Structure to design on (424 residues):
DNA sequence: ACTTTCCTAACATCAAAATGTGATACCGCT
DNA sequence: AGCGGTATCACATTTTGATGTTAGGAAAGT
């Protein structure tokens, strides 16, 4: 079995000790770096012979820079590192901010040491592990939104909108829907009135953002 | 412990038997409905006294309608059901299609029965479980993309792009950036050249899709 | 010192879009 | 039968956008 090179950034001494005791005494892991802030962690990496690290357990609430805002800096120093967030926060904002910054897993601190170990090993195998409640929030991001029913636009108008979003000119829309270009103009004027906008650009933005 | 009302839609008799044997003999579960296609499953629900179902294990590759395209129909009949995809497919397209349709978990068929049970119970507790390799693909959806085109645009050009995405006209951009409208035109012409496009619409689409 | 890149700007031209007014016709509703 | 909403079309005008050429000045690199 390959030995996994670990790092931990955590400011709570109790949690840190617990993680150190658990991972430090296991032959599967080589706990190479421990730090209590992103700043000091980065300092430890900015040496002549930086350690090789596979996985980082990273807290969010830290003195100085937060774990999330520190991710870019860390990935800058270690592009290949896999970052597992380990935090008490469960709000969607922080979860998505962390994932968007490049974290690959997200665990709540209620997670048992056994499960944290499981997550670390899963990640080292190229997978990802998330706490069930976190995973639920993530999948809900994709789930079909409760339709904001479009009372403002008619079916025909939505057809026109789609054509515009597809990049068609008035002339092409007229050809495609087999109506006159003047009719297209009229439709679009009505659409603009209904949405309270006055340019193709705004319409495309609204449509791509799912507002229409 | 609450009993979990289960349904299974699976056309492979071997897999089905294995699941039936496992969940049918466990007191925690009430395996209420088994079907080998979405169509027959929906028929079983279209009765005077439809069963109460908490969780559905759903295959993708099925005779007739695919599992993914069947999700909307199923959710129409049972809005509260939690759908766990159970399939051999691991391609991102299918994963995201299933999640966007409203599935809450996604397991590969390599998943052991014990882990499937774990997933079912996790979901019944309001969480979500995904196979590690699936979870990885999901988090990679959020991860920062390797920078692409935006190396071809200068800072100033990105400013202009932002203004256009915000729905400003050339005139308004000129006013906002305090430059002449001719300069705005020149910038935009260069931007179009750099991105190989030729309209505001395409630019807005690229920008909103994160390509710039 | 020289080149390159970028931001700036003016002038010009044609295509496309935005806006307005007015009109005909169909459909469903009361 | 009459009303409101929708879809259709025409004509006209003004504004905006797309594309081109040319060019000066500032900053940065060779």
């Amino acid at each position: 079995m390959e030995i996994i090179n670990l790092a931990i950034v955590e400011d709570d001494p109790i949690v840190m000790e617990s993680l150190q005791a658990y991972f430090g005494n296991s032959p599967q892991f080589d706990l190479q770096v421990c730090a209590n802030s992103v700043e000091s962690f980065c300092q430890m990496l900015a040496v002549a012979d930086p350690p090789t690290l596979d996985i980082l357990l990273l807290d969010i609430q830290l003195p100085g820079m937060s774990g999330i805002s520190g991710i870019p800096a860390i990935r800058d120093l270690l592009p290949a590192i896999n970052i597992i967030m380990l935090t008490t926060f469960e709000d969607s904002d922080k979860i998505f901010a962390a994932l968007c910054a490049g974290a690959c897993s997200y665990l709540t601190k209620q997670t048992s040491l056994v499960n944290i170990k499981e997550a670390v090993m899963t990640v080292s195998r190229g997978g990802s592990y998330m706490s069930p409640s976190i995973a639920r929030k993530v999948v809900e991001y994709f789930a079909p939104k409760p339709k904001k029913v479009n009372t403002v636009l008619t079916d025909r108008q939505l057809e026109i909108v789609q054509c515009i979003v597809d990049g068609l000119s008035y002339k092409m829309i007229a050809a495609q829907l087999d109506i006159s270009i003047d009719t297209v103009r009229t439709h679009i004027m009505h659409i603009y009135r209904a949405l309270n906008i006055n340019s193709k650009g705004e319409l495309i933005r609204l449509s791509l953002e799912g507002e229409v």
